[in-house]
Amino acid sequence: MEETNTNNCSLGELPEDIQRWTVPRLLDVFLVFLLVFGVFLTSSVDTAILVELVLAVLSLTYARALMGVVPQLLFGILVLALIYAALVYLDNGLVDSSYPLKFARALVAFAAILWFVKRTVRQRRLQGEQSWVYFSDLILLILTLHGLVIVAEFLYHPFRDFIYMHWSLYPGDRLPPWRAIGLTKGGAMMSYMQVIGFFIAMDKIARRKTTYGPLLLMVMGVVCLGVVVLMAQTGVLFFALSVVPFCLTFSIREGTRLLRYFAPAILLLGVVTVFVVEVNLDPVTRENIEMAWQQQTDLVANFFREGVLRNYSFDEIRYNMYFFPNSAGVLLFGNSLGLREGNESSPLDHLRVDSDVGYVTNIWGIGLVGTAISVTFYLVLLFYGLNLWRRGVCRGGPIVLIVTTGFFLAGHAKEVHLFARSGFEILLMLFWSLYVSRSPAGPSLVGSSGETATAGIEEGGQPREALDGLPARSELA
Questions:
Q1: Would you say the pTM of this structure is higher than 0.85?
Q2: What does 408-434 look like in DSSP terms, one character per residue?
Q3: N or C, which end of the chain has less CB nearby within 10 Å?
Q4: CA distances from 471 to 46, 240, 295, 463 (A)
Q5: Is 46 helix (H, G, I), strand (E, B) or coil?
Q6: In Å, what is the CA distance from 474 to each residue of 425, 469, 471?
Q7: Per-residue pLDDT for 140 more than 80?
Q8: Helix and strand tally (H, E) in the chain?
Q9: pLDDT tens, 323-333?
Q10: What is the DSSP pairing of strand 458-459 with strand 462-463?
Q11: CA distances from residue 464 to 48, 119, 168, 403, 471 in whole angstroms, order as listed
Q12: If you average pLDDT over every residue of the chain, what do you get?
């Protein structure tokens, strides 16, 4: 990649005429795929955590990598959550260690993604917004690959059974033939991430900041969006509710460019799908497609028709899964019991609260105090993205971070999503790539010895508070 002098650039931006993007390296693609879609060795241990442990140890070489206000705050929240969950675990007789393990893994993932992003920025010599473009290209690519896996699972059930048996260790009898969830144990969380893949493709077409051509971006975006219908109805709902606000962040010129490319692509996808379903597919596959469309879109149809979220599964959640402890002690501090797994042979599973709702499960397990600590982590990311957007850093990157964080917080009202595997790694990668993009002097953030350059009060002509996405001292005066 040709080096450019960016000392006089505005915050997080390189001049358009010298902008240079770096094609994602195969090794980076492979590593990100391993971090997001690890192979399960047991029901709760996968290869991703093993990779993250190695990278977390390597991250100790970055002795000053957490010098920024926002990283320190996020790291402190995770440490506080781990200590709190461990105390609740000890206070309740060491019955269920799921929450201490969850927060321990979150800490490991936080350090591992930090190492990967910082190392990649230095080795690829990424400057300013190039960091965001590089990692968002990576995320879009792995989500497209995951989308192709979902399509293969849906069309060829022996392949789906093989993945569930040897990759995700997911009980195949829990899924109807018209659903596929890819390489993870749940469809809802990754359906949100596939929507994010579509939004990233939209952003790259509109702003023309990517190494992929427009035609490839259209294909990748359509794949990411199309498989949502095969995965979960909440993914379809979240897309329907967020696509218009997301599009409103584009300028008129960017929106025109987006329509010119994506509108024909989506229209063509619809025409081809109808043609294939009606003409060339076998009856079983055709019935599965029709059933998937009906089941995954009826919630959205009911919402826009009646103004309420209503179908069988949502009514089941609304009326049967929202209940809270009567004991003040459990309500405030929890009983340390995690999410029910539906394992009839486990005595511990029978003690867990019979609800899939994330907030309800958290309140029973770690109480209002622990739930508030967990939510605070995501609120910090949300406000960080809002501050970057307000300052014009990386243009589309903060919007993607805001929408992704919002998906986590809103989706937690239906299922357990906070700090959930796969999605959490993608969220951290979005954050860290934006964090190192906030200054045009990207490589200077990591010195030759691997330490972060922090000498001086200002970087890139901006106060350090502004680089962290927080108000500068001059604004607080």
A1: no
A2: HHHHTTTS--TT-TTHHHHHHHHHHHH
A3: C
A4: 40, 33, 46, 9
A5: strand
A6: 35, 14, 8
A7: yes
A8: 20, 2
A9: 888 888 888 98
A10: antiparallel
A11: 34, 22, 43, 25, 10
A12: 79
